Amino acid sequence: MSYKLFIPGPVAVSEKTLRAMAQPMIGHRSSDFVALYQSLQPDLQALFYTKDPVYLSTTSAWGMMEAAVRNVVKKKVLNCMNGAFADKWNDVANRCGKPAGALKFDWGQPVDPEAVRRELATGQYDAVTVIHNETSCGCMTDIAAVMAVVRQFPEVISVVDTVSSFSALPIRKDELGIDVMITGTQKALALPPGLSLCSVSKRALERAATVTERGYYLDLLEFQANHEKGMTPSTPSIPHIYGLKSKLEDIKAEGVEPRYARHARLNQSVRTWAFAKGFKLFPKAGYGSVTLNCFANTLNLDLPALLKVLKSKHGFVIDGGYGKLKGKTFRISNMGDETDDTIAILLKALDSALAETPKLPAA
Ligand SMILES: *Cc1c(COP(=O)(O)O)cnc(C)c1O
User: Fold this and answer.
1) Measured from the CA of 63, which atom of ligand 1 is nearest?
2) Which ligand 1 atom is at minimum distance from the Cα of 186?
3) Measuring from each residue's beta carbon to the nearest atom of ligand 1, which residues come in under 6 Å?
């Protein structure tokens, strides 16, 4: 049975993108590849709001998230932790043998800039990781406010995960002073999973040059050296790069401002629908994500039953809660290529599925 994903990644991939990915292979050291790679850079730099290069890594986003920690941390990294992905970054830093400080917030709370300031002021840290849009609980941190604090500590290299927000709203890398900005392809860009994009400042590369044991596959200096030749360090997923080229054309055709407006509008439609049913947003008020909504199961519904009906009768898949939030929340994505029409069809199906969903016995 085929069905359509409205989970917060991977999301549905268009026929156009899939066709673009099915083009014949070219050699990754050929002039055709160099032309392809270089043709992407101006459009990618525009979306990252940066003058720095944008590397293409044949890994999912975690590849470059691990790369960032391995390349820029010498002393100690401060991990801002407010959800599953943010928490895991602390675990990854530990596994890479990097001294790491855990700055913990409750899931659903944004990263508090003043708490970041207090920690960085101890002088122990030379890097910080922040998740812009914590997908696990649909919480979007005010990255401009956090970066304004981070930039007061010149020694600290900033690493920001924009995996589920990139291209859905402007994130002005250079203006905010983000050193390493990372995204994946399977979220708002609506490509299949398997490629990540990462833009790195000169400062961060200078730090990396002083760090030993960067390894090979995730070495930012290898990415930079190859970037200068219009290439990637090793054979990349060329189909993904064809797909990315096609997607960048789509984004240009739509226009970035209309694209941002579309995501905001669809996100609001889903909220309006859910509030009318009596659901509430899980994240702190004012910090809800614009690419997905994470709703608290305030109606005490049998969420697995709802998801089952929605999938089997209507062919749509939403998410029943991440990790410790399973059963307590549900998430609906409005990333990628969704339109007013496709969201309206989903909400209609949800109406129908809700009507057959039992409530759980009161605890
Ligand atoms: C999906 C996601 C990731 C993980 O990406 P992978 O592509 O699975 O490695 C990391 N951070 C955030 C915020 C995400 O939404």
Assistant:
1) 9
2) 7
3) 9, 60-62, 85, 131, 133, 135, 161, 163-164, 184, 187, 193
236, 267: one domain: no
**252, 275, 291 - which closes a domain:** 252
Atom of ligand 1 nearest to the CA of 134: 13
Domain that holds residue 104: 15-252
pLDDT at position 274, please?
98
Supply the pLDDT for residue 268: 98
Residue 245 and residue 141: Cα distance in Å, rounded? Answer: 29
Instruction: Give the closest residue to 329 by CA, choosing from 298, 287, 305.
Output: 298
Q: Determine which residue's CA is closest to atom 12 belonging to ligand 1.
A: 163
Mapped onto helix, strand or coil, the DSSP state of residue 153 is: coil
- The answer, yes or no, to whether residue 1 has pLDDT greater than 90, is no
Q: Quick one: 100 and 153 in the same domain?
A: yes
Cis peptide before 10 (omega within 30 of 0): yes
Phi first, then psi: give them for residue 170, nearest 5 degrees. -70, 130
Under 8 Å CB-to-CB from 362, ≥6 apart: which residues? 300
Residue 362 pLDDT > 90: no
d(CA 321, CA 70): 31
Give tens-digit pLDDT for 310-351. 999 999 999 999 999 999 999 999 999 999 999 999 999 999
* CA 182 / ligand 1 centre spacing (Å): 10
pTM of the entire structure?
0.98
Dist. CA 242 → ligand 1 center (Å): 22
